[in-house]
Amino acid sequence: MRSTILVAAAAGLVGRVLSHGDHGGSQQPIVDQNANWMTKHMAEEHHVSDFDASSFFALHDYDADGHWESEEILRTYGVMDESNKHVPQSRRDEIQRELLQLLDTDKDGFVTRDEFVGFINSGRTLPDMGTGPGHHGDDEYEYEIHHWEKYHDENTQLEDLTHPEDIEHFKKHEMMEQAEERLEKLDKMSIVEDNIPSKFRRNI
User: Fold this and answer.
1) Using CA atoms, how far apart are residues 140 and 201, in angstroms rounded to an integer?
2) In a 10 Å sphere around its CB, with 0-12 CB exposed, 13-18 middle and 19+ buried, how is residue 68 labelled?
3) 120: exposed, middle or buried (C-beta count within 10 Å: 0-12, 13-18, 19+)?
4) pTM (2 decimals)?
5) pLDDT digits (tens, 9 = 90+) for 114-141
6) Mean pLDDT score of the chain, rounded to an integer?
7) Which residues have a Cβ under 8 Å from the Cβ of 197 and sit 6 or more positions away?
């Protein structure tokens, strides 16, 4: 993806960019504001508007074992995302219990594809638990789908990457690269035996 290609170069640009106004225009909502949570999630997080219960289940069965464990359900709802780090453990547990109560019909602690498809085919849908659209990708994916695809394209140049989201994203990359460089330097440093306390030195 072009945004990934520009990361290294853009990281150097961050220090020279001080501020930027708004995005120069608002984006039309992808779906109707009254759409159910599942529809909003698929549109905003996956840019998909045509899906069925089985495909939704498979997409969020992150380890592809045919079950939704509690952690996978919470991840789908974005509870693991940084944007929901303020959500207390008590609320996380409550969300988990409510969703399992809805979906886990045989009460074995996880949700199968058949259970989920049956739930949807009965005319019901996943409820909005107040945790947002369900951010569950890594930083790169979230930046790509929520910012890059809205405001940039294949013609974007380095000098165009001046939105606050661009700056924050590339700062993270810069910090990660600096940390990696420090570790590499430490790995390459030879051990000076005189600097090791005598009790830990090898017997020569």
Assistant:
1) 45
2) buried
3) middle
4) 0.58
5) 999 999 999 999 999 999 887 775 556 5
6) 75
7) none
